[in-house]
Amino acid sequence: MTDLREHAVDVHEQFSDSLDVGVDEIESRLETLVSEYRVPVDEARRSIVSTYLDEAGMDREDLSGGTTESAAVADIDSPEEWLDMTVKVVDLWEPNADSIAQVGLLGDETGTVKFTKWAKSELPELDEGVVYRLEGVVTDEYQGRFSVKLNSATTIEELDTELEVGDDDTEVEGALVDIQSGSGLIKRCPAEDCTRVLQNGRCSEHGDVEGEFDLRIKGVLDDGVEIHETIFNRESTEELTGITLNEAQQMAMDALDTEVVVEEMRETVLGRYYRVSGPTLGRYVLANDIERLGAPTDAERVLIRARSM
Amino acid sequence: MSASVPTREVARRAFATEFNDATYTFKESDDDRAPVYSLLPTGQRANRVFVAGTLTETEDVGDDSEYWRGRIVDPTGTFFTYAGQYQPEATSVLRETETPAYVTVVGKPRTYETDEGGVNVSLRPESISVVDGATRNRWVVETADRTLDRIEAFDEAGEYAAMADTQYDPELSTYRDGVVSALEDLEAEADEELAAEA
Q1: B193 found inside a domain
Q2: Interface size, chain A vs chain B, as Cβ–Cβ contacts under 8 Å
Q3: Is B28 an 8 Å CB contact of chain A?
């Protein structure tokens, strides 16, 4: 195959779904530009692609370029990459703009990633819990977080298989150096779908309400290099402190003060080392798994290091 | 969010010998509320530290109101910590803890000039916790590792290494030797425990 023919085949593949144009026609257009007008072949190809993009009403970023590769979610590490992936739709969210047809979370064994499907791409509907082979998705980055975009060049094939979606939990460790305000025995708004923490018996949305008791710790883990803000929900707080919600309410009733609970918690957990893991929410790690760290395990390694300096 | 949102200061790890040598303090801006940093001789700024050791002595040195002093001993030297009415929780720990006891302290370095014209460094606690020996030992190894990190990076002449070089012209081998002996103590302890169990 000649060089021009190869280019023609590539271009043909890129447009085979959207335009009725033959390889021969593409090759002859290339031939004209390269032989008669002395245009370098790359430039010629670019120009022809532009023409076909106009004809098909597509954007250049809708093109797959024939250079996609199969990737796992955890491999996504740069924007504007063309990828093929086999993923399960983990979650579908409410789109917040008319230009978006579907938005949600895709996952495979290595983790999860947000996806956006544009309305103008007119792609078939994705269903939650179903595994798909997606070819020709484009990666994107916003504030250090990656997502993928489905576009009109993306092909979607439903697969009849199961896929175990891995978690992409963050694991952090350090000394618990602070327990922030709003920790301990708290009250939450009882209104449906509102879990706001009450301030002096008031919900910022629903006003004065009869709150429901809950336990929570907002803590700071510090390893001497960086800090990690961590939220322990009721279960994690009970596990961490050994104080149950019932016991906490009893303590508060006896003392006529809810503050005694967090004071007791401070005494039990501050200044100790922990390793926690869980999903991140904004700047917080939600502590689903907690491990108290005891005696050091790497004294020998550090001693060897010190002696060698 | 603007870049001026204050971020929480990391609690640095340093052994008592180095902490007590950190006599030079500075601010990064002219703002009255700007944080004050102590300069660690191995080349890091510290607005907050996390230390561990044995609380060996506590004493109320206040005149009119309570003002407690605690001596906290690590493998290299002694941290002095002072807590009064503005640190009620730490004060009550110092008042009520029976010495000796292992403690960890989260706190801020403070310097004051002595009558003789020298500078003493002490620790104003944010919290003091009574802990077990395993936690204290973990701190020793962690602090050793962090100290070695700073010594290793010193020659790369980062901002605070350069500042330390100018202010102190430090003998870094002193701090490295401190690390070695702290870790050797720990190994000897572990050996004794093994022998006791056998």
Answers
A1: no
A2: 106
A3: no
- Separation between Cα atoms, residue A62 and residue A83, nearest integer Å: 12
Q: Is B188 on the interface with A (CB under 8 A)?
A: no
Interchain contact, B10 vs A222, CB within 8 Å: yes
Q: Is the ipTM of this complex over 0.90?
A: yes
Rounded to a whole number of angstroms, the CA Rg of chain A reads 28
With respect to residue B112, please indicate whether it lies within any of the assigned structural domains: yes
State pLDDT tens for residues A215-265.
999 999 999 999 999 999 999 999 999 999 999 999 999 999 999 999 999
Mutate to test the interface with B, among A143, A173, A177, A273 (most CBs of B within 10 A): A177
Domain of B103: which CATH number? Answer: 2.40.50.140
Residue position matching structure tokens 């402190």: A241
DSSP A18-41: T----HHHHHHHHHIIIIIS---H
In tens, the pLDDT along B90-113 reads 999 999 999 999 999 999 999 999
Query: Do the domain assignments include residue B5?
Result: no
Reported CATH class of domain A69-159: mainly beta
Domain A170-292 -> CATH class:
mainly beta
Residue A67 contacts residue A82 (beta carbons within 8 Å): yes
Q: Are A154 and A248 in contact (CB under 8 A)?
A: no
The alpha carbon of residue B159 is apart from the nearest alpha carbon of chain A, in Å, by 16
Tell me the residue range of the domain where B72 lies. 11-188
Q: Which of A225, A295, A309 sits opposite B138 (nearest CB)?
A: A295
Give me the number of domains chain B comprises. 1
Q: Are A166 and A107 in contact (CB under 8 A)?
A: yes
Query: Which chain A residue is nearest to residue B104, measuring alpha carbons?
Result: A271
Q: How far is CA A7 from CA A10, A22, A38, A49, in A?
A: 5, 13, 17, 11
Radius of gyration of chain B (CA): 18
